[in-house]
Amino acid sequence: MNILLHDFGSYIQPDLINHLTKMGHHCKNLVYPRPNPVEDDYFEKYVTAHLKTGVYDCVISTNFHPLLARICCQCNIKYLAWSYDSPISKDHPEYFSHPTSYVFLFDSTEVQEFHDMGLHNVYHLPLAVDTKRLSAIPITDADRKRFSCEVSFVGRLYQSKLNNILSHQDDYTIGYINALTDAQFKLVGFPLLDDVIDDAILCRINNALNKQGIVYHSGEEKGINKAALSLCITNQITHNERIILLRLLNHFCDVHLYSDERSEQLLEVPFKGPVTYSVEMPKVFRLSKINLCPTARGIRSGIPLRMLDIIGAGGFLLSNAQPELGTYFRPDIDIVWYNSVEEAVEKARYYLSHEERRLQIQQNSYAIIKEKFSYPERIATMFQTAGL
After folding, report:
1. CATH architecture for the domain at 2-128+376-385
2. What is the pTM of this model?
3. Cα 137 from Cα 280, distance rounded (Å)
C-alpha cells in the first residue's frame, strides 16, 4: 500500500516507518509539528493536496489528531491513529465519529470510556517495541562508566497545577481534594477519581476561581471540568510517588535520575540530566540493575511505552501494578511490580541482592516482549481492523 504518515516528532515514528517499509509498503512521511487540533489552514491545504493526488491508500499518525481525521473523511481516505499517550483529549468527541477513522489506544479502560460515549471506532491495541534495533546498540567502556548503576529512573517528574488551583480554595475544598489525592495515591491500579469528582465540587472550585477573577480553561471549555481536575490530581500523585521513591531508594543504593526536570526535593539524588531516546536511553536500561518505572497515574490500565522500552532494551523493570501487565506476565516470575511505595522499596532491596533471580526475570520478560509486542503484529492488526 501507499501510506501517508503525519510526523509531529513521535518517539515511535521511526520504528513504525521502518517496519511498514519492511512489510512492503511505500511510506511518505509528512513532518509537521503539532498542528492546531481543529483549525490549521496551512496544514489542511498541505495534507489535502497530497490526498487529492489519489496515490494514497490510507493515512497513519501516532496519536489522534482531530483535524487530520476530518481531512481524511472529506477526502474519503481511511485514517488510522495509534496513540502512545494516555489519556487522550476528549475535547472534540465529534471528530472520533468519522466513518473513515480508526483509533487505537493501548489502555483498555480508556477504550471503554469512548465506547460508553457511543464511539465504537476506538479499539484496544497495546504498543510495540523493536527488540532487534535495541539489541544492536553497542555498549562501550565509556557507556559502562557513565550509565552503570543499581537503580535508574528516566522520565519526567510531573509538575502539577493542583497546588496552584488549591491555593485559591477554601479549607473544605482543600481538605476534600487532598483526601481524594491521598486515597488515590494508596490505591495503585484502582482508579476512583471519576466516581468521586462530582458536579458539586467542580462548581465549588470554579466559583472560587471566578470570584478571584482567575480564568482557567479545560481545552476550549471555560472552567475546570472533571477530566481536567482528574488529570491535575493524577499528575500530582505521579509527582509525589516519583519523589518519594527516589528519595527512599537513594538512602541505601546508587540511584541515577535522568530527566530534564530538577527538583529541590531531590538535591541528594544524583541528577544526570536528560538522555536521547533512541541511543542513550536503551544503554541506561541495559546497564542499570533495576529500572524504576512508576507509571503516570492518568494511565488507567494499559502498559505504557516506557515499560516496553525498558524490557525491550534488555533491562530489569520495577513497575507499579498496571492491570494489563497480568495479561502477559506472571508476577515475580516474568516481571516485578509493586502495590505500594513500601513494597517497591522492599523489592528493590531484594532483587539487588539476588542477582541470579533478577537476571532470570529479566530474560523471561524479554522473551515475552519479543514474541508478543512486535511491530509487524500490531500493524497487521490495525490493517485488518480497518479492512485494508
Report:
1. 3-Layer(aba) Sandwich (3.40)
2. 0.95
3. 9
- In a structure prediction context, what are the per-residue pLDDT tens digits for the chain, which is 388 residues long? 999 999 988 999 999 999 999 999 999 999 988 788 889 999 999 999 999 999 999 999 999 999 999 999 999 999 999 999 999 988 888 999 999 999 999 999 999 999 999 999 999 999 999 999 999 999 999 999 999 999 999 999 998 899 999 999 999 999 999 999 999 998 876 778 888 999 999 999 999 999 888 877 666 667 899 989 999 999 999 999 999 999 999 999 999 999 999 999 999 999 999 999 999 999 999 999 999 999 999 999 999 999 999 999 999 999 999 999 999 999 999 999 999 999 999 999 999 999 999 999 999 999 999 999 999 999 999 999 999 9
Cell of 53: 493526488
All residues at 6 or more sequence positions from 198 whose CB lies less than 8 Å from its CB, including other chains: none
- The Cβ of residue 24 has, within 10 Å, a number of other Cβ atoms equal to 7
Domain ranges of the chain: 2-128+376-385, 131-158+237-372, 162-229
Number of helices (H), then strands (E), belonging to the chain: the values are 17, 13
Under CATH, which number does the domain 131-158+237-372 receive? Answer: 3.40.50.2000
Measured between alpha carbons, how far is 242 from 187 in angstroms, rounded to an integer? 15
Q: What is the DSSP letter of 347?
A: H
Q: Which residues of 146-179 are buried (b: 16+ CB within 10 A; e: fewer)?
A: bbbbbbbbbbebbebebeebbeebeeebeebbee
What angle separates helix 41-51 from helix 66-74, to the nearest 10 degrees? 40
Which ranges of the chain would DSSP assign to H, the alpha helix? 13-22, 41-51, 66-74, 108-116, 131-135, 141-147, 162-166, 171-186, 193-196, 199-211, 226-250, 280-287, 305-312, 325-328, 341-352, 355-372, 375-385
